[in-house]
Request: fold
Amino acid sequence: MKFNPITPEAVAAFTNIVGQEHVLLPAAAEDMLRYTHDETEDLRYEPEVVLKPANAAEISRIMQYCHENYIPVTPRGAGTGLSGGALAIHKGVILSTERLNKIVAIDERNLQATVEPGVITQVFQEAVIERGLFYPPDPSSRGSCFLGGNLSESSGGPRAVKYGVTKDYVLNMEVVLPTGEITWTGANVLKNATGYNLTQLMVGSEGTLGIITKIVFKLIPYPTQNLVMLVPFRKEEEACAAVSQIFIAGIVPSAMEFMERDAIEWTCRYLSMEVPMAADEEAHLLIELDGNDLDLLFKDAERVYEVLEQFNVGEILVADSEKQKEDLWRLRRNVGHAVKSNSIYKEEDTVVPRAELPVLLRGVKEIGARYNFKSVCYGHAGDGNLHINIVKGDMSDEDWNNKLPEGIKEIFRLCVELGGTISGEHGIGLVQRQYINIALNEVQLRLMRGIKELFDPKGILNPGKIF
Amino acid sequence: MKFNPITPEAVAAFTNIVGQEHVLLPAAAEDMLRYTHDETEDLRYEPEVVLKPANAAEISRIMQYCHENYIPVTPRGAGTGLSGGALAIHKGVILSTERLNKIVAIDERNLQATVEPGVITQVFQEAVIERGLFYPPDPSSRGSCFLGGNLSESSGGPRAVKYGVTKDYVLNMEVVLPTGEITWTGANVLKNATGYNLTQLMVGSEGTLGIITKIVFKLIPYPTQNLVMLVPFRKEEEACAAVSQIFIAGIVPSAMEFMERDAIEWTCRYLSMEVPMAADEEAHLLIELDGNDLDLLFKDAERVYEVLEQFNVGEILVADSEKQKEDLWRLRRNVGHAVKSNSIYKEEDTVVPRAELPVLLRGVKEIGARYNFKSVCYGHAGDGNLHINIVKGDMSDEDWNNKLPEGIKEIFRLCVELGGTISGEHGIGLVQRQYINIALNEVQLRLMRGIKELFDPKGILNPGKIF
Reply:
């Protein structure tokens, strides 16, 4: 790939499109800083210019210019990504969607909402809850991440186990293609058998096929009641095994989160919080049941307890106040931050069929023993989606850089053997790119590269990601 | 497109691949007959040969041969399609998946099943119900249609309103590409952020991108209880309006079906069945609530009655036995057959945001008045998916062939204006192809054609469909 650098003429053209105050150059080093990284490890890449367009029309003009002039463009939401997707590794333009931050409409008659991509996920969730509506996808970063980024990475979150991931809530999108053309991908309907599914092709494409400028989501009625419980297990593999058993018993919890003992201990320290734990408890499940009828939830909880009796569990903590529920969720949402604040780390976003979780977990520990790395595991066990945080600790730089990737390959090969894959909700982006051919064969890669070329013939949009 | 005819050498090659008894030639006119049509109007196209391969390997060899020799291949499931997708309009090969009819595995630990594409939908549903599991998609033709066809057309059915359509249950597929290459499209997981979504690109592609040879579905626990009620409305637009109001009240029924008076009357005659109807009732809603707790369903039913009180409804019939529930569902499932047995017809599969249904229905009647056609409307009102059966009655052939398409265009333009599109679950296939540019713009069509060319560079797989 041969790209052109940003010339003064290019800067002038961009300034003409978005206005002086929405163009950032490296001279403004401090303002520029946050556009040089996302939440992936400690990676830093400085773009040549950051542009903050106001709308699809401006984005279209930027893309036309960059397309004509072979200038790479890296789209960026809130920069909370965990695979390096928003990093300007080929320099060029960072195109930030932060000014496209309006909730355009909440259509209560149709249970739909139209939003711009720069709306913060939690802001949107709270806006629809006010109308008694529910937008379930809730990545841990929901307090800061953008809806557009959630779509680009096919984000999930704890409630995906009952409600599905971000992709399951998008009906239609307006996108600007790398050529500058603006189009919608589908229609504002719950069912669509009219041509190929461009909407789902765009979802999860990590900003490589187009820039999302508007999204139509479906909403559902908000469930008014929930129960939250924290279940300690003496054996971590039993915690994983219990997950499948609860589903087999016919119960679909609204969350089913797995946390190793270390994950909880590190997070308690990080948050200065206390969770009572017996010395012999290896792991916990955070289980949430939701619905509209509290009596029914208590009945379901009874059935969950019956399943749990088959396992070696400690004392179950059932949250008895909203405050306690919030605390338990705060604990879970902060595991990532806590682990990462402790050490240099790499996070793997493995996913397998849910009953294979115990096999995966055992495999990770066994591979870790052979490669001499420590891992802290947690994640969305109900979906079979295990986040593996590999902490550097006292591993040498040499081993970290050269030996560890071989261990990661073994983990990913195990995932694929188990019917799973290498990313459940974080995307491939930059950091998993080197492992992509463990998950995808040559035929799949050829088709994907062909799609990329069709949408982006000059390869200017988010180059160097995924493939 | 320039295709080659089937030569004796081609027949010999095919015979070598699938065996003599699985090759049908026009000489076997009677056996060939059912491969000349599907359930779309009275369309007939005779293929040059029908092949019934046993597995993906044989299909791969057939595709390699046809790819090399520019021979068109039309894949076919059970032939229950409603848009002409399985018709061999360019002659060549009909490739029937009828022998790929095994349920390979029902994985109760992971709530997944692996099936071949030729399994009948209802057979699969019943097999999983035996294990306490649920595969919700239930097109009206479920007693005869194939799962592979359901995926190819992105089929829905009444329960889509709560549970989603076929596409929402597929995790992974094995497909044979037009070039003969065999690949899986994804992984057997509930979440996948690893490369572009080839699975959802294949779903709904109407057999134009590849031939599905294996499918991994997700399953959910089977809801053990349900309530079924038939609600008569004095104004059909009020029936449509009530649909949205029930959702806004926070209830998600497992079915919410709309039937015009004519639809019920014609079907009662067709089935020799009786449904009590007052003279002034214009339309009915068939509403089903499901779950695991009958008390809760009765509570939900009370809330449905409260919503219905706002409307001018007649006496609500609540099914008080399994037999009566079955009868009501038999009534609904047979509307299509009943209407079609009455007259030459065309069926349109319109879909709009659900609150726009009353506007669509009024528009259809108004357009019908201007173009002098009668329509019988029914369908999945909860999804905004209205099937419009236009009956020929005493319309002249001249008007039917030349004037009516202009009226259909007006209906489709109205759908698109309302945020909807021209097919919700039947596909574009052959018969809606002429209307595709009402729903899709030039950019979308260019991308879709590009995808087609990428998968099928010689254009041999199901040529002449969609575009």
Q: What stands out?
A: The longest helix of chain B spans residues 397-417. Chain B is about 35% helix and 20% strand.
